[in-house]
User: Fold these one by one.
Assistant:
Number 1:
Amino acid sequence: MTAVKLYPPRPDKVYFFGTCLIDLLYPEAGMDAIRLLEREGIEVLFPEDQTCCGQPAYTSGYQLEARAVAAAQLDLFPDPWPIVVPSGSCGGMMRTHYPQLFADTDLEAKAEEVAGRVFELTEFLIHVCHLDLEDRGEPEKVAMHTSCSARREMGLAETGPALLAKLGQVELVEQARAAECCGFGGTFAVRHPEVSAAMVEDKTQAIEASGAKRFVTSDCGCMMNIGGRFEKLNKPIQGEHIASYLWRRTS
Amino acid sequence: MSGQPPGVETYTPREFHRQAHDALGNPQIRANFRKAMDGLMSKRRDSFDDWDLETLRELGANIRLRALARLPDLLEQLEANCEANGIRVHWAEDGEEACRIVREICESHGARSVIKGKSMVSEEMHLNAHLEEAGIEALESDLGEYLVQLNQQTPSHIIMPAIHLNTDEISEILHDKTGTERTRDVDYMTAAARQQLRERFMAADVGVSGVNFAVAETGTLCLVENEGNGRMTTTVPPVHVAVTGIEKVVEQLRDVPPLYALLTRSATGQHVTTYFNMISSPRKEGEHDGPKEVHLVLVDNGRSNIYQDDELLDTLRCIRCGACMNHCPVYTRVGGHTYGTTYPGPIGSILSPHLMGLEETKDLPTASSLCGACGEVCPVKIPIPDLLVRLRKESVGEGRGNVPGAGIKRTRKEVAAWKGFQWLATHPAVWRSGTSVAGKLRALTPARLGPWTDYRTAPKPAGTTLHALVKRHQSSKTHQEER
């Protein structure tokens, strides 16, 4: 069972960890997340030397390499500000797996300390910022895909939908087997491409059948996978990072 | 030990990719599994209404942990109490020895015919093939196992062995092998199988069963079943041989009800099963039924090796409910045979490497997207995703080396790739210029990226990285403030 998390009061500053997928492929999602935080009056610190949380190496079994990469990130957040991560998978890596990764090493205490300050973006917006949103967009039916890491590793199945519920014109539609994995799984999609393809095929069918015109997610891995499948099929359904969606509809 | 005994349709974990390809290309298999797993998931969901699931899982996990913490003591206590009850106890280091013990018991009674209740450990040790080689016929009496055996296959699920077959396929098998009429009438087919099996129960010289829980405190063997075939197997023939992995022991009778509740609800969504057998001795003076002899074979087969490792040990908590398979998106797509192992799905992917070595099973720890559904539903809270990662470490030689075949997947090419990743990710300036160049050259991104682009479009680097955007954003803010 996920332990009950106690949330801090709204801070003056936060660190932002952008994730490598956002950095390279979806930088606007990162910027929109930063804008949302700044609009709440929070100063966003972006440590320039951030690269990757180390998860790809970790889940592939290369723990020494993962540890070296993770150790470099541990140094980037010296002050006690919360660390906001716009991804359940990287957030889960930092919160759940950093302490495991550094267990019985010199960095164990530091990893624990940093892990304790990690928040996924939607979690932070709901539980720490108590965000209010004024929807300026057109009425729209939207499906939400919550990543498996956000849902199970971080226990955040509700925070994404809770944010969308604050948008008056948005109808969150139900999809079949919403909790089922989209088949990305990082290197899984590479090592078992056919199984992964079968999974994303079912996911896109479920989203399409839900009547949604768009799907929103807080993980760029899932977005790349599901969105890439829709695009390959020339379907008009587009994916959008929840940060961009929230910002676009409320600015 | 290979995945399957000779003479049976062959699947091997070495061929996971090919078998997955075949299963994915078979619409019948995909439809059968999807339908069955959707049904099982919803049954499980509905069955936990009147219980506080988390509290019960916590209790279940603790009972299993407590038993494992004292496993050697409890096994000795179990042996002593069973013997005191008149049950003869045998120890087998591996599957081969376990087979030999069962065969010798059969031979000492001149047995030619064995009737079996469902037992995964007997599948694991390929008991049927072994007995048949010795001229002893072993017939499965669980309906699903019976069908699978008629069809010369192995079970594709640990609870529902024939879940890969639909009504029409079952009708065809029964017609082909036993001469029943072709029909979609499930009652007719069940009655036909029942009649065929009844005759065999009466004629069998020895009954072989598995064990769900072995109670150390009292020397009691508990058997969970729905069809009554388990009760027939363990009472009708004059000799009963129960076979179990050494991890199935629990400390006391009080531990059984919560585990039983978790097992049946997690497996089939049942609050109780039709039958729950507690076997504590052979037939006593003056009793009218029951076998004259009861034997218990305790099988190690690699389990004490797992037991030595404080992480891998958690694998032994398993109570064989199959919930992890039912909820696994990979298992749902490819089915149980694809894994090529006795135990398929997530639990099989963490258990099989111990039984068969990583050399045989190297694709299994990666055959998961680490979505966590298996760990979420496991009634005894086995951290399956963490153990999959642990085995991935073992297979690339960065674990503790405690699993047979450790390091088998470590290739120079892959090591170089991850070392390269490490170097880039720990040299932020190089990383930044790399991602920035990738963005500038985005037009050159290949439209094809291996198998990824067979099903999806290729991801394209953005023109500008987040690092660059943030820099721009920060300087524009500074300008605004200065103005």
Note: Strands of chain B lie at 87-92, 113-116, 137-140, 206-209, 213-215, 220-225, 239-245, 249-250, 275-279, 293-299.
Number 2:
Amino acid sequence: MRAKARLYPKEAARLLKERPGVRRAVTGATLHFERNRLRAYGEVDIEAWRARAKAVKDHVLSHLDRYLELAERKLRENGATVHWAETPEEAHRVLRDVVARHGVRRAVKAKSMLTEELGVNPLLESLGVEVYETDLGEYLIQLLGEPPSHIVGPAIHLSLEEIRRLFHDRFGTPLDASPEALAAVARRTLREAFLTAELGISGANFLVAETGTLALMENEGNIRLSTSLPKVHVAFVGIEKLLPRFQDLALFLPLTARAATGQRLATFVSLIQGPGEGGPEEVHVVFVDHGRTALLHDPEAWETLRCLRCGACLNACPVYRQTGGHPYGYVYSGPIGAVLDPGLLGLEEAYPLPYASTLCGACYEACPVKIPIPKLLLAWRRRAVEAGLSPRLEGAALKAFRKVMESPALYRLFSRALRGVPLGAQEILPLLKAWTGGRGPLKPSPKPFHQLWQELEGEWTPGNGS
Amino acid sequence: MRVALFITCLADQFYAEAGVAAVRLLRALGVEVDFPEGQTCCGQPAFNAGYWDEARPLARRTLEVFREAEYVVLPSGSCASMVRNHYPELLPGSREALELAEKTYELSQFLVRVLGVEKLGEGLRGRKVAYHHGCHALRELGVKEEPLLLLKNAGAELLPWEAAEECCGFGGLFSVKLPEVSLAMAERKGETLPEAEVLTSTDAGCLLHLSGVLARKGKGLRVAPLATLLWEAYAG
Ligand code: SF4
């Protein structure tokens, strides 16, 4: 996917103005998820779970080469074919081969953020393959030609009204159709696709190195169908998705479900070991790097690789809630996007995203693997300034600010000047203008405290008994 | 006991009353209060925006100004957190930064945890209060129960507020870098705000931002810093 992260501030403002319904839909849905998460966290010793999960992930990440080799060996023993892709182009080559060898005309796809990263759909379309997104939300946005707005709920930004209108235009359903009726229509189309597709594509929530097991979580049953009905299954797996032992799933499956939707466990969990009876004839696992190794070697940013893509930080984020994911301009939005995208795309390409946060810390509180997102945001910001990416005016203003604050005499002068400026004049100063619009002029106290202090000093002295 | 007050720039300029209230309250509780000269800004705006080189000299001067203090008390949660949590990051290896961090408290935190004061008086009897949890006070300093306890014990009626723990959208430079998103966040606070007489919080930044937006939306309730209300709790 081509990144448009640099446009974030403009796109966020535009969306708030032009599509106010998005704010309503996203706020409603994320608050709902958030309440569920809090309830689900409250049922267990969540601090112990988070600490354990973090430790397991840190262990895998610090021995990644070893676990990748083990996973590869186990997958081969299970009869799967293993590929390595450092770049999207290398991942494309694997798909191209499969398509050519099997004469694939139709593919069904399970929701996967990594395949968004790799641009799998445009590639397949260019090869003349029909692709069906089979997750209901993902199917909706495919019909609309939009990218996902949320890691877990790709169509979170749409209202029921919008979906009704879409289906009315596409399938002729009535404008007041019930959500169930709409889902039934989609299901009918997708069922046909499942039965006729030669290729099934998925991502992976986890890959267990010890046994070579792919684990996939879902609520609709479409992943199970996508990975079992077609005769070929290709799974794209980020190299950071590994877990050491099979028994680790006992922690990570319920933890992810609780974090993502507040469920104790996803409705369906598929564990795939390789090709076999009742399943596809060929299973291909493509380990994708796409910037992850470089990130792993970044002493500040590597912790983002613990991410389970549960979306809890998005649901908790009051900034994300105002706009949904589109303005962020890349696959990963919200708090995790703001720290992961600079790592994957390069800071220059993702520049303003680390500023898409107030550093309120709600994301860190929600994250099941304790990724210190506020700390990472600060690190990316520091680097952006060091790299000269920030606006010149901002740099000049903060330098002037420092100069004033460094000298109490200047500060006092500034303090007097502030009270001398007529309130209306604030509109002229560029930074202040951004503040006053929507909030009104800044009204300083009649006297600053440092001046009042002299009056207070006489008011009471220790020992005078008052 | 002797306490050095750190009023920090925003409170100094825009909520001087919080400083006055803090002085009166601490003195009334038998604490001697200093206001060390030469204090200005803690450096947080520059630090949060990524300008660590601009923040560092300000942190160093703060270390200098408060070197002799026994306790440093601020009527501001985010500035207190800046000193407590971020100075050691900003000045790695500085023993002074660690020392200052350890003796620095937000006002209500100091009253409850250090002085052991849980009740100041009953001056807020029957007053309907909405409390906004400033994010840094709440999540970085872990100051959550202290202000609520002091307000409640003074007779205030704390109104339930769905969005009490949600960020108001101020975020320092965030409010000017992303003004539309910032305002949308404040509006959500406003939309869910209960029918209170007074809205309070530890932070001048949040209060400035919220009071501006609420006034524009025609919600004309009183907005006052926590320190002011705590003094009213004591003095009636
Ligand atoms: S950063 Fe944490 S909360 Fe956010 S998606 Fe990743 S694992 Fe979930």
Note: Residues A 151, 259, 307-313, 336, 366-369, 371 surround iron/sulfur cluster (CB under 6 Å).
